[in-house]
Amino acid sequence: MFELDHDLAQDIVDRTMAILPNNVNVMDSQGLILGSGEPERINTRHEGAQLVLANGRVVEIDEPTARRLKGVQPGINLPLLHDQRLIGVLGITGDPALLRTYAELVRMTAEMLVSQRHQQAEQQWRRQRCDDLLALLLGEGGDSPRLVDEARQMGLKPQLARIPYLFELGLEAGAGQDVDALSAWLMSRYPDSWCVSAAQTSLLWCRPASLTLDDPRLLERLVGLGWDIQRVAVGGPAEGLSGLRRCYRRVSDLLAYGRDILPASRLLTLDRYRLPVMLWRHRNEDALDELLSPLHKVLAKDGNGQLLATLRSWCEHDGQSQACADALGIHRNSLRYRMERIAELSGVDPLRLDGMLSLYLAVQLLPQQPATQFAPE
Fold first, then answer.
1. Which of 103, 140, 213, 332 has the fewest beta carbons under 10 Å from its own?
2. Using one digit for the tens of pLDDT, what is the confidence trace for 343-355?
3. Pairwise CA distance, residues 328 & 333, whole Å
4. CA–CA distances in Å: residue 206 to residues 126, 183, 196, 313, 339
5. Could you give the strand order of the β-sheet that contains 194-199, starting from the edge strand earlier in sequence?
6. What is the mean pLDDT of the segment spanning 111-115?
7. Model pLDDT for residues 15-46, shown as the tens digit of each residue
8. 72-103 in b/e burial notation, b at 16+ Cβ within 10 A?
């Protein structure tokens, strides 16, 4: 239920008195003055307002009547209505005979301000409730029928398949537009989007999977508009809330993987890095030591980084010798010599499928240095 408060009452007073030469008072549903051109009267009772509240009609007070009432000056007191409900009183000080011609216009303006403020409050509540609902839906227990039903009633369409994007923005104050602005931009341009911000520099955006989107172009546009986007992790289509929660966990891991392993890459897709990310989640477990051991043997003898660069290119070109040699700017014989050297040092043959897979996964868990960074995927 909407009620007048001090801020709204004083706003009505200030706007009205900017036009009228008369003092204006706004009283609540109990006759207490909430806003006034005479600050000393705020929080005092107004007997004229109580008469309006008791009778539900306009009350005019002339000079003789004002002397008989407490805290009242001559003027007109009009009921303030919202949705046909009496919520307060508008009082204009002065000779009633001179005020009648425009008192109703002043009341109409005041009621319009009340309605506008109510709409703003409703919109703010709705935004906050939607944010709370989305956080609950994406958390444990998010399949609760009550939550899902409320989400439907709020127009959130929880049944849609969605693709999660996890944005990480820069920490520097003033370096770009903030997370709230990014959320508003995305939701205004992509209908039925969900946006949830868990931190000042992080935004989860879940767009409908039915939308066609060019991710590199979107990222380029956002950066061009001023957002300091460090990186964005993109998942795959997720059916249902449980699928979306799983995909959200995957893109969270993907973003952290990109931060540690591919610091120069802004755009990371789960399709491209799904397997390395799965292994990266277990990076501190002993089981991965065996996988990384052959690559470490190569690195120990690779003083200038030539063998590592060759191995990265070999993996990047799916073991295609000519494409790899061309990318490195070397002859195929030179490439064959390097691959033989890698096999000798690692004890793993990169020309065999199992050897190539083993070295490929190890390379994906090795942080890229500036000299060997690839372009963003």
1. 140
2. 998 888 888 888 8
3. 12
4. 19, 11, 9, 34, 43
5. 194-199, 202-208, 162-169, 229-234, 267-269
6. 91
7. 999 988 899 999 999 999 999 999 999 999 88
8. bbbbbbbbbbbeeeebbbbbbbbebeebeeeb
